[in-house]
Amino acid sequence: MRGAVPVARRIIMADHRRLATSVLGVGAAIALILLLQGLWSGFRVQISAYEDNVGADLFVGESGTRNFLGVPSVIRMDAVQAIRAIPTVDRADPVAVRFAVLDLHGRMQSIFLIGSVPQATGGPWDVVAGRAIRGDDEAVVDRTLADQHGIGLGDRITIMGRTFQVVGLSAGTRSWMAGFVFTSHRSIELLVKMPGTTSYVLVRTREPSAVAQSIRERTGLAVLTPGDLGDNDRALLARIMNGPLSLMLLIAFIAGALIIALTVYSTIVERIREYGIAKAMGVRRARLLRIVLGQSVIVAALGTMAGYAIFRGTSWLVVSLRPQMWVRLSPGAVGGAVIAAGLMAILAAAVPTRRVARLDPASVYRG
Question: Which of 50, 159, 177, 266 is most buried as measured by Cβ atoms within 10 A of its Cβ?
């Protein structure tokens, strides 16, 4: 194998322009695989941003509730007092959640409207400009949403026919498809014309398991941990996105394999006489096949390195132009891309290998 590697390297690097073109092509395919994986991981983090950061140990919702951002939960405010009466409950605060569409400068924008009691659990956890809400006519807007539409502190926005003044901007408060807008709980009660109701009760306790059981027995409501809600939301997202994502990954993989195959095959066709002479002189078939595979591996390896560099630049550009999109690349995703490149090399070598294996040494002397 050691003797075959330099031969493969010399052959594949004989035409620098063709090699560079092939490496960039494979690199683009690998970069696309990494970018799709990074965006997918970012979506999975974003979709549970509220549950992961708001600081609640338990979420109490309408019976049958499984998702935080899915089907709306509606429960009576009486449940808050019933939960607070449990001795081991440290805090229990209502939060109203509604999906809304805003008309911002002639553009329709989807948002998640979060209503909480001022100074209680449920509001924005990272206010990076301005302050938290104090009144029923105030709002805190996700910073990326504000940047998209030129919304600043002191501006007024209209939500479902009611005007709010923007008093703060928050960071990390965005789901995979919409930003959060925070206001008071009373404001949402008035907007939806459902006084005396809420969506969830956020519970803080040092004994979540025991408290969850007590809440179920006393109220019959659904009780979920932040992890449960996050997992259910991610499962919902997977049902929507898995098909298109898998198809795009498959297309990128096939494109990379085809580029490697065409590159190696073209070098073999150009040097077919040399392969034939080598075969006639007694060079074993296995040695020739290792040379072909070595060329595929070289193109795949260089393409993987180029792909990672392209991914880094592309992900920076995506986040700069669309800060509402998060790119989170895990070591597992990088390892998966390396494995994908290896499979590309093996599959790409199949056609050129067959060409060499079926080569008749006598044919090179017949012209």
Answer: 50
DSSP letter at 302 equals: H
Reported as a single tens digit per residue, the pLDDT across 27-59 is 899 899 999 888 888 888 888 888 889 999 999
Domain assignment of residue 198, given as a range: 58-224
Nearest 5°: the CA angle 1, 283, 365 is 140
Amino acid letter for position 177: M
- Asked if residue 111 is part of any domain, the answer here is yes
In tens, the pLDDT along 280-289 reads: 777 777 777 7
Q: Write the DSSP assignment of 63-87 as a string of letters.
A: TT---SSSSPP-EETHHHHHHHTST
- Last residue in a domain, options 224, 243, 277: 224
Residues 156 and 37 occupy one common structural domain: no
How is 254-297 classified by DSSP, letter by letter?
HHHHHHHHHHHHHHHHHTHHHHHHHHHTT--HHHHHHHHHHHHH
User: What DSSP state is assigned to residue 323?
Assistant: T
70 and 196 share one domain? yes
Alpha-helical regions (H) of the chain: 4-12, 16-47, 49-53, 78-84, 143-149, 185-192, 208-219, 226-270, 272-280, 285-321, 331-348, 350-357
Mention every residue, 6+ apart, whose C-beta is less than 8 A from residue 318.
35, 39, 325, 327
Supply the pTM of this predicted model: 0.75
